[in-house]
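hiii so um. not sure if this is the right channel but i have a protein structure encoded as tokens and i wanna go backwards to a sequence. like what aa goes where. can anyone help
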């Protein structure tokens, strides 16, 4: 038996180090070729690292949240044959040295028994090599962060009345569904006083959540953007009554054939057309060289919420796409991002970004520019409001655009004129289809 060291591979594009965001194996695990060993985070995407060989895990190359340089030891395996690394035997009076940062496998009781057996008379046959002892797994949390507990409405109401958070109640029903009996057991287990009003129960406890992986990258990117870019935000109200009517007609006529349109691809087209008149907005600013690069193509970033955090997949050459092509590409990229399948080049290279909170978009916001871009267009929710037109009051569909700009590059007047151009296209939606 020998040892095989798997090193952190070069993931390309000048990446010098990555962050370990999840270990898929633990010391003592038997693994096979192509089995995923770990998830690592580059500056844009999560990458799975597979094993090139069969073997048994001896040690891991660090803890979750630590950074490893390209070429550093990622994991150490025990393999059949000589392997690619030499294991120095420990000295008699001191323990074996473990590489810095590695999580060693727990001592094997079976190997100690083997040592005793070797001291027996020579006539006794040597015992077979024991299978590596698997390290005991830590007790899992009741539910993963963000996982919603399953319970019937009546159970939820009773939990509310009792002041119980269902997140902390074990469920015995199908798929972990929480029942009334589970509530009774939870109440009995925490020793609640009979007749106490649980709605005002005093709560104790705290939880430290390490900021790692994508959440750390988001934090670093937001901090960089706010530190480097002097933001200013411009909010304008847009009447989208005609746009929504046109969208409904297009979906009724072409929805089955081309797919349904949301507001976003129509807004993308309005931004593309407005950028032709204001090319300074479709740009990136190099802080180190003090150079602004204006782009002819429009590579539109689409801020997308995923379970792991905010990601910005990029619709390339939005200027060459009609609304249906844009809608299809948005859906494809959003699905890839939410399932962790987006490629690195699909998450980088945007020249301007759109962000929307959908139906929860509020009436105004102050979006953060996606560094090193110089502008971001934010969409707020559509609401029905009374508007005075031709001396009468009518109901209209209104929506705010909340957009932020880099004041080093974009003057306030230019920003206002750009948003007014976007507004004109949205309020006269036929112009979206006329060159």
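sure thing!! here u go:
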């Amino acid at each position: 038996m020998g040892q095989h060291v798997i090193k952190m591979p070069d993931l390309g594009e000048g990446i010098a180090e990555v962050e370990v965001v999840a270990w898929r194996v633990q010391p003592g695990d038997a693994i096979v070729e192509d089995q995923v060993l770990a998830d690592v985070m580059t500056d844009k995407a999560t990458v799975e690292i597979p094993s090139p060989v069969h073997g048994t895990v001896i040690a891991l190359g660090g803890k979750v949240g630590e950074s490893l340089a390209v070429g550093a030891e990622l994991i150490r395996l025990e393999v059949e044959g000589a392997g690619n690394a030499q294991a120095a035997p420990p000295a008699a009076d001191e323990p074996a040295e473990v590489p810095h940062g590695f999580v060693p496998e727990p001592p094997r009781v079976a190997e100690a028994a083997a040592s005793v057996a070797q001291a027996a008379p020579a006539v006794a046959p040597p015992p077979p090599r024991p299978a590596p002892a698997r390290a005991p797994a830590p007790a899992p949390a009741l539910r993963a962060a963000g996982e919603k507990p399953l319970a019937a409405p009546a159970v939820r109401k009773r939990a509310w009345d009792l002041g119980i958070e269902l997140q902390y109640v074990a469920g015995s029903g199908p798929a972990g569904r929480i029942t009334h009996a589970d509530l009774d057991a939870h109440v009995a287990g925490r020793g609640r006083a009979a007749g106490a009003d649980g709605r005002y129960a005093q709560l104790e406890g705290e939880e430290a959540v390490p900021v790692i992986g994508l959440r750390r990258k988001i934090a670093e990117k937001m901090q960089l953007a706010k530190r480097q870019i002097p933001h200013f935000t411009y909010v304008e109200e847009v009447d989208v009554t005609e746009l929504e009517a046109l969208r409904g007609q297009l979906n009724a006529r072409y929805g089955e054939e081309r797919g349904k349109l949301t507001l976003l691809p129509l807004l993308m087209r309005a931004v593309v057309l407005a950028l032709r008149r204001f090319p300074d907005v479709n740009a990136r600013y190099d802080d180190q060289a003090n150079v602004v690069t204006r782009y002819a193509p429009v590579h539109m970033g689409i801020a997308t919420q995923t379970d792991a955090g905010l990601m910005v997949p990029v619709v390339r050459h939005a200027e060459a796409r009609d609304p249906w092509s844009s809608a299809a590409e948005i859906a494809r990229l959003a699905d890839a991002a939410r399932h962790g399948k987006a490629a690195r080049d699909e998450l980088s290279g945007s020249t301007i970004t759109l962000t929307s909170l959908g139906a929860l978009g509020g009436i105004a916001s102050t979006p953060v520019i996606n560094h090193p871009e110089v502008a971001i267009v934010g969409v707020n929710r559509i609401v029905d409001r009374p508007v005075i037109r031709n001396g009468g009051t009518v109901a209209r569909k209104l929506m705010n655009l909340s957009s932020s700009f880099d004041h080093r590059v974009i003057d306030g007047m230019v920003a206002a004129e750009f948003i007014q151009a976007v507004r004109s296209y949205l309020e006269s939606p036929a112009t979206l289809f006329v060159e």
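oh and The first strand starts at residue 2 and ends at 7.
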